[in-house]
Design brief:
Layout lengths: L6 E4 L3 H13 L5 E4 L14 E3 L6 H17 L9 E3 L2 E5 L3 H8 L4 E3 L2 H10 L9 E6 L3 E4 L1 H11 L2 H4 E4 L2 E4 L2 E4 L4
Parallel strand pairs: 1-2, 2-9
Antiparallel strand pairs: 3-8, 4-8, 5-7, 6-7, 10-11
Helix pairs in contact: 1-5
């Protein structure tokens, strides 16, 4: 028996799964096939970290940051939201470079970090010193990190993809648990 799919995605890493998730949101009637030679998020994604660090050098970077913030905001209402870990971001910058850093951060407003915010850095990196011409700054909106393997499992197992996506690989994800998968 031949199965017909509306969309085939080759690669079950984070971008392939995000493409499948977006397709499932926009076209819930589509049948989607996600192909991977191994288990989803078992390649480079499994060794990386999805990070939200709002730093851009050009208008194009700032547009990417805005889209990233939209995507992170979309996670807020999902089961994957429990995987997000918010992190403060601290910058050591020359006082003369402070305006340029502010421009690179877009809408996030810099402020001087206080001693309590610097303390975890001091514990991890005891030799770090702030020179007289430098300043330690932060912004009130933290960055975020997300463990990609768990995130991919949530996308496939419980997101919009769960209802209309078939996975073909040596291993499958179902409701966040890895299990052997019959070969196609």
């Amino acid at each position: 028996m031949t199965t017909v799919f509306d969309l085939a995605i080759v690669g079950g890493e984070i971008f392939g799964c995000l493409a499948g998730d977006e397709a499932a949101r926009r076209h819930p009637e589509w049948r989607v096939l996600l192909l991977d030679r191994c288990a989803p998020a078992a390649g480079a994604t499994g060794w990386s970290l999805a990070a939200d660090i709002p730093f851009g050098l050009s208008p194009a970077h700032h547009r990417l940051i805005a889209e990233s913030e939209r995507q992170w905001g979309r996670l807020a209402g999902s089961r994957a939201a429990g995987l997000v870990r918010r992190l403060p971001i601290l910058y050591v910058v020359g006082r003369d470079r402070l305006p340029a850093l502010q421009e690179q951060l877009g809408r996030r407003r810099l402020r001087q970090a206080d001693a309590a915010e610097f303390e975890p850095v001091r514990r991890m990196l005891p030799d770090v010193t702030i020179r007289e011409h430098e300043i330690l700054v932060t912004h009130d909106e933290p960055g975020a990190v997300l463990p990609p393997r768990e995130f991919v499992a949530e996308l496939i197992g419980s997101g919009p993809m769960a209802a209309n996506t078939s996975l073909r690989s040596d291993r499958c994800v179902a409701a966040g648990a890895w299990r052997p998968c019959a070969r196609a």
